[in-house]
Specification:
CATH class: Few Secondary Structures
Biased composition (Basic residues): 1-15, 28-44
Keywords: Ribonucleoprotein, Ribosomal protein
Region (Disordered): 1-47
Organism: Skermanella aerolata
CATH topology: Factor Xa Inhibitor
Number of strands: 3
Distance between the termini: 11 Å
Shape: elongated
Protein name: Large ribosomal subunit protein bL35
Number of helices: 3
Length: 66
């Protein structure tokens, strides 16, 4: 059987840290910024580390196919 391919969209959306945790862009900043609070906009800047179980799901299903 041939090797499975890594999900190309996931390669662009997620990064794996040196300790094996998964970093992703914060959600909720695509449109409708007028109704968001300043605190929400500030906290959604940059990247965030996903919860451990979400990281396991991303790695298992999308990034670690060999």
């Amino acid at each position: 059987m041939s090797k499975l391919k890594t999900h190309s969209g996931s390669k662009k959306r997620f990064k794996v840290t040196a300790s094996g945790r998964v970093k992703a862009q914060a959600a909720g900043k695509r449109h409708g910024m007028v109704k968001r609070t300043q605190k929400m906009k500030r906290n959604a800047r940059g990247t965030m580390v996903l919860a451990p179980q979400d990281g396991v799901t991303i790695l298992k299903n999308f990034l670690r196919n060999a």
